[in-house]
Design brief:
The complex is a heterodimer of chains A (about 350) and B (about 550). Chain A has about 350 residues and is an all-alpha fold. Chain A is built from 14 helices and no strands. In chain A, helix 10 packs antiparallel against helix 11 and helix 13 crosses helix 14. Chain A starts with a helix and ends in a 7-residue tail after the last helix. About 5% of the residues of chain A have low confidence. Chain B is an alpha+beta fold. Chain B contains 17 helices and 25 strands. Chain B has a five-stranded antiparallel sheet. Chain B has a five-stranded mixed sheet with strand order 19-18-20-14-21. A four-stranded mixed sheet of chain B has the order 2-11-10-9, with no helix packed on it. In chain B, helix 10 runs antiparallel to helix 12 and helix 16 packs antiparallel against helix 17. The longest helix of chain B has 18 residues. The radius of gyration of chain B is 26 Å and the shape is globular. Classes of the chains: A mainly alpha (about 350), B alpha+beta (about 550). Chains A and B meet through helix 2, helix 3, helix 5 and helix 7 of A and helix 4, helix 5, helix 7, helix 8 and helix 14 of B.
Chain lengths: ~350, ~550
């Protein structure tokens, strides 16, 4: 087993290398780089993708075109006076010492920019991971046991509706109804904590954070219950049809024991393996929900960095999410071994 | 603006702005926390290297220039300079620095700080990452200290905006921004030290920042500034989503929020509106932008003025204003917003008139010879269809072009709309590889200099005259306007430029905004809805 894990970890290195080369190539090939962005800011007042706008009648003593000197200065400022493969080499050399370069927009190390957003996304990631497993597994089991009853039908319909609701839309609706000034003011409108947070006692702080957490978390998770619940239900139903269950029933075991002791363990295999891929969601963040609830997370950062062509931040984000994905896959495979004795990688 | 007549009266004229009218209410209550929506967190606060508008909004409260404009009269008023002299030829500016001004860290402001602020920007090695600011200062040759509190700026050539550039220079503390170590640099991203009316006291990345009134501000005892900067503190939130911002305004989490036409009309009803929150519709002369369709004038289709006029006549702006803009926009008539002092009111908008359009197209030899529903014509021995593609960088705007497309189709003109991502769009503009584009110019500055967009010198690579508009008469007038320091004389010239450009129809101009809209909470008080050139939030105060 250890050997297997080691082999997998070593394999990650060429895979990561491949991913970074491709990614680096793609973002460098995309039209408009950081230099072009800055030049656009000179010419168009820095208004980007959300609308074409420009400082055409700008209040400046600007000559009509950006001079070569300025462009050269910019290129040097951002290290674009070298070809892309040289820059890639430099980037690779630097990440060996965990130096991801400087963010072009934030003017600080890209690593700091990215890690500063981790807490927000991880909070939501962990909370939704725990909650969805806590809710979906029991619900799935219950649905399997009561397969075909009114309860099953009702929950299926509910889950389907939930699945169809876009999270960001729900976010707006929730804010208008439960947090805005129009209907009920039960919750705060976005952000992670209140203005007076610093002067609260620890307990108050916890409650304040939870209070702020409710609406974004609902929006965040609304569509994630369905797949997991139905997966649980169907894999349990699948298991119930098998011979060993018939045997167990023939032995006179109660339905409860049959379901929860015999069938459940095998039915959990597909669920357990999902944990790995779920970890990837930690790092994804959600642009729309973060925008609506004014959460400063990774989704928003990724989107903005893409628009402003902040290469170093993008590479840093990509590097981490690739690692998380690879590690997640490894965890999934290890989970397989743990829950299914028939599988043996060695 | 300084009038040349006065300058002629004396060889050197010192301008004291005691004549300018104080703006705001000197009896306004001081104190209270004003909650303002910045929209988004600034990427970096460093005034030398920051490029985003969010950072400049914050800096405006903390960092000051040498002079600023009166919100009502638009006259220059002294800020960190107590007075200034302008040489007769309009190329030398001598500023006397105000006495007794201190930085937020307690150190006194010196003339050295002013010199440093200029030198840092034009530093040839780009040590302070100021490349983006360099173009603005390209015409200023030097800043020389000529006395204990006097500094002289010399311009390379005469230009009416030289003074604006120098007077607007953000003055920074040399002892903080000069040669920072790596560690200090990082700190400069999140801190700001200036001389201004507010001090940055708290900054929570991604959440909000707090500015507190500077009780040692030089302007507190200045008569002209008596009604300015009344808030005890300003809490800036970063709420990007418009709907959420309105909800927060209703709740009192925000005290002020700009509104779009649509928000003003559709999202400001409910039990609290008119009781604890109010909405305002007002008019002023602050610059606003306009959208347009630009025709690539190097393309054979658009070379004839009659064709451009015809295509303009197919644009049903009245329908669009009614349908999408609640009737609250005006059809634009020319290259700057209609309320501008430089706009020529004699120019009338070219309105929807398909009959006229067809007449003009026929006159130019366009006819549907092959009966396919699209007009065609022989150009250089080839049969060409009246068919073109408009590049559109903003999804929101496609609906306007769709109306245009439908109306044009009925007249035998085949319009295609192609949405392109912004960076690709810019690339296509720079390469001049387009037939027509839809874009918008933002308001920019009150003092209009058309060179960047309309002069043939700007038609080269990376210039903003990407449609290759060339009119020698316009060029000559623009050049003349640039060296005319007297505003009234300049207005005359530029009104002519406005008319000439409008007559050439290089763009199909869309709309000018009639109003501006905002919402505010009940506790906000103000002298009036707007001043002549800005809403004037700086003059509001909070009633307990």
């Amino acid at each position: 087993m250890l050997k297997y894990i080691l082999r997998r970890v070593l394999l990650m290195i060429p895979v990561l290398l491949g991913i970074t080369i491709i990614y680096f190539g793609i973002i460098n090939a995309a039209p408009g780089g950081p230099i072009e962005q800055k030049i656009q800011q000179l010419r168009f007042g820095g208004v980007g993708a959300d609308g074409a706008s420009a400082a055409g009648n700008s209040g400046s003593n600007k000559e009509n075109a950006v001079s070569e000197e300025v462009i050269e200065a910019l290129k040097k400022q951002y290290g674009f006076d070298k070809p892309w493969y040289v820059r890639y080499g430099l980037w690779l050399k630097n990440i060996a010492s965990m130096d991801f370069g400087e963010s072009f927009t934030y003017e600080e190390p890209a690593l700091d920019v990215v890690t500063s957003k981790f807490p927000v996304s991880i909070q939501f990631g962990i909370a939704s991971l725990i909650l969805s497993y806590l809710i979906c597994i029991p619900l799935g089991i219950l649905k399997a046991i009561k397969n075909g009853t009114g309860f099953d039908l009702f929950t299926s319909v509910t889950l389907s509706i939930m699945y169809a609701i876009p999270g960001f839309m729900l976010g707006i609706v929730l804010i208008v109804f439960f947090a805005g000034g129009s209907f009920y003011e039960w919750f705060p409108v976005g952000e992670l904590y209140s203005d007076g947070y610093d002067s609260m006692t620890f307990m108050e702080q916890v409650i304040d954070r939870l209070h702020h957490f409710v609406l974004p978390l609902i929006s965040y998770m609304i569509s994630s219950f369905t797949v997991l619940t139905l997966l649980m239900k169907n894999s349990l139903l699948e298991e119930i049809k098998k011979d060993y269950i018939r045997t167990a029933r023939a032995k006179g075991l109660s339905e409860r024991v049959v379901y929860l002791k015999h069938a459940l363990r095998n039915a959990l295999i597909p669920i357990a393996t999902g944990i790995g891929s779920f970890i990837g969601v930690f790092l994804a963040g959600s642009l729309l929900i973060e925008t609506i609830f004014q959460l400063d997370g990774l989704g928003l950062l990724g989107y903005q960095s893409l628009l402003s062509r902040d290469y170093n931040v993008l590479m840093c984000l990509m590097f981490f999410s690739s690692i998380v994905m690879l590690v997640g896959n490894l965890i999934s495979d290890i989970c397989y071994v743990l829950v299914d004795p028939r599988i043996d990688f060695s | 603006m300084v009038s040349t007549k006065t300058i002629l009266a004396t060889f050197l004229l010192t301008l004291f702005s005691l004549s300018t009218l104080a703006v705001g209410n000197p009896a306004a209550a001081k104190g209270g926390m004003f909650k303002y929506n910045l929209g988004m967190g600034p990427t970096t606060l460093n005034p030398l290297s920051s490029t985003d508008a969010y950072a400049s909004s914050v800096q405006a409260y903390i960092i000051e220039g040498l002079a600023d404009r009166n919100a009502d009269t638009y006259e220059w008023q002294p800020v960190l300079a107590s007075s200034w002299e302008i040489s007769e030829d309009g190329t030398t500016y001598t500023f006397t620095i105000r006495d007794g001004v201190t930085w937020h860290d307690g150190k006194p402001l010196t003339v050295e700080d002013v010199k440093f602020s200029f030198d840092a920007i034009v530093d040839p090695d780009n040590k302070y990452k100021t490349a983006h600011q360099k173009p603005y200062y390209e015409n200023i040759a030097s800043a020389t200290i000529i006395g204990k509190n006097k500094i002289q700026f010399v311009a390379k050539k005469k230009y009416f905006k030289n003074f604006d550039v120098v007077a607007g220079l953000a003055i920074l503390p040399k002892h903080i921004y000069e040669n920072p170590s790596k560690k200090q640099k990082k700190k400069l991203n999140k801190t700001l030290v200036g001389t201004g009316p507010y001090i940055l006291t708290k900054y929570k990345r991604g959440k909000n920042l707090t500015l507190t009134r500077n009780e040692k501000w030089w302007g507190i005892n200045d008569k002209i500034r008596a009604g300015e900067n009344n808030f005890g503190s300003i809490l800036m939130r970063f709420v990007k989503d418009g709907t959420v911002a309105i909800q927060r305004l209703q709740k009192g989490d925000l005290d002020f929020n700009s509104l779009t036409v649509e928000e003003y009309q559709k999202k400001t009803s409910g039990p609290k509106w008119g009781k604890s929150v109010f909405k305002v519709k007002t008019q002023n002369k602050a610059p606003t932008g306009y959208g347009f369709i630009g025709w690539n004038l190097n393309n054979d289709l658009f070379k004839e003025k009659d064709v451009r006029v015809a295509l303009y006549h197919l644009l049903d702006r009245d329908k669009m204003i009614k349908k999408f803009r609640f009737g609250m926009s005006l059809p634009a008539t020319g290259p700057i917003y209609r309320q501008s002092i430089y706009a020529n009111s004699d120019v009338k908008p070219i309105l929807f008139d398909p009959k006229k359009a067809l007449k003009l197209l026929r006159k130019q030899g366009w006819a549907d010879t092959n009966k396919d529903g699209i007009l065609d014509k022989m150009i250089n021995g080839k049969r060409v269809n009246m068919s073109f593609t408009i590049l559109e960088p903003n999804k929101e705007f496609v609906k306007y072009l769709t109306i245009y497309k439908e109306d044009a189709k009925r007249a035998g003109v085949d319009v295609n709309i192609k949405f392109v991502e912004w960076n690709t769009f810019i690339k296509k503009l720079d390469e001049r590889s387009f037939e027509a584009v839809r874009l918008a110019w933002s308001g920019g500055s009150i003092d209009w200099d058309p060179k960047q967009v309309w002069h043939s010198d700007s038609a080269g690579a990376a210039g903003s005259n990407f449609i290759s508009y060339k009119n020698p008469k316009v060029d000559k007038l623009i050049d003349e306007a640039r060296v005319t320091l007297d505003q009234n004389a300049r207005i005359k010239i530029l009104k002519e430029v406005y008319k000439l450009i409008a007559e050439d129809v290089p763009y199909a101009f869309f709309f000018n905004e009639k109003y501006r809209f905002y919402g505010h909470t009940k506790r906000m008080s103000r002298e009036k809805d707007t001043y002549k050139f800005q809403v004037g939030l700086n003059y509001w105060w909070i009633t307990k």
